């Protein structure tokens, strides 16, 4: 029988498992061409699964909306972008495909952060 401390540690480990659902950053995709290159791509994806290392095993799984702060015409603005998730047929894990200008787990894009730093310090 588990004690309450073990149960909560177990819940914590299940919630924050490492090496599970990695995000894949596609450096050929950005905000402007993400829809064309990733969302509307129904061909085989050439990514390697970051969990099991299988090649060409990722297929379309789901999409989700993600809020992000981007720089558009020298103005910082909030926008949503649809992110595609792929599922590995080998290990069953899902991976989000991010465009190169989005920082994982961060609302602000690289262009937004660099602009704020530049305006603040130069
Ligand atoms: Zn895999």
Structure description:
The chain is an alpha+beta fold. It has one domain. It is built from 3 helices and 4 strands. A 4-stranded mixed β-sheet has the order 1-4-3-2. A hairpin with a 2-residue loop joins strand 2 (58-72) and strand 3. The longest helix is centred in the first third of the chain and has 12 residues, at 4-15. It starts with a helix and ends with a helix. Mean pLDDT is 84; it is low at 1-10. The chain binds zinc ion (ZN). The site of zinc ion has 9 residues, from loops.
Binned strand content? 25-35%
Strand pairing plus helix content: what structural class?
alpha+beta
- Secondary structure: number of strands: 4
Largest sheet: number of strands, sense, barrel closure? 4 strands, mixed
């Amino acid at each position: 029988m588990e004690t309450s401390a073990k149960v909560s540690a177990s819940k914590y480990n299940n919630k924050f498992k490492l090496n599970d659902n990695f995000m894949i950053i596609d450096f050929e995709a950005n905000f402007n061409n993400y829809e064309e290159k990733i969302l509307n791509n129904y061909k085989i994806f050439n990514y390697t699964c970051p969990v099991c290392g299988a090649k060409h095993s990722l297929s379309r799984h789901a999409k989700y909306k993600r809020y992000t702060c981007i720089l558009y015409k020298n103005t910082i603005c909030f926008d949503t972008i649809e992110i595609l998730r792929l599922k590995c047929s080998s290990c069953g894990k899902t991976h989000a495909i991010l465009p190169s200008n989005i920082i994982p787990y961060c609302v602000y894009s690289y262009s937004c952060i660099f602009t704020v730093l530049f305006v603040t310090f130069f």
